[in-house]
Design brief:
Distance between the termini: 26 Å
Structural class: mainly beta
Keywords: Stress response
Pfam family, one: HSP20
Number of strands: 4
Strand content: 35-45%
InterPro entries: A-crystallin/Hsp20_dom, HSP20-like_chaperone
Shape: elongated
Number of domains: 1
Radius of gyration: 19 Å
Strand order of the largest sheet: 1-2
Oligomer: single chain
Organism: Corynebacterium comes
Largest sheet: 2 strands, antiparallel
Domain SHSP: 2-37
């Protein structure tokens, strides 16, 4: 069972020298996004990433 914030349809797996690597990208809705926040003192927007 996988978390809801993963996109299993885009999963990729490789096997090299006895090591299995599975990569499952984050779903669009769970990726980091940038929002602007206006501060009361100067009303200039401040960018926050996360």
């Amino acid at each position: 069972m996988l978390s809801d914030n993963l996109n299993p349809d885009e999963a990729k797996a490789t096997y090299d020298h006895g090591v299995l690597t599975v990569r499952i990208p984050a779903a669009e809705q769970s990726k980091a996004r940038r929002i602007e926040i206006a501060t009361p003192k100067d009303d200039a927007p401040e960018e926050i990433e996360g």
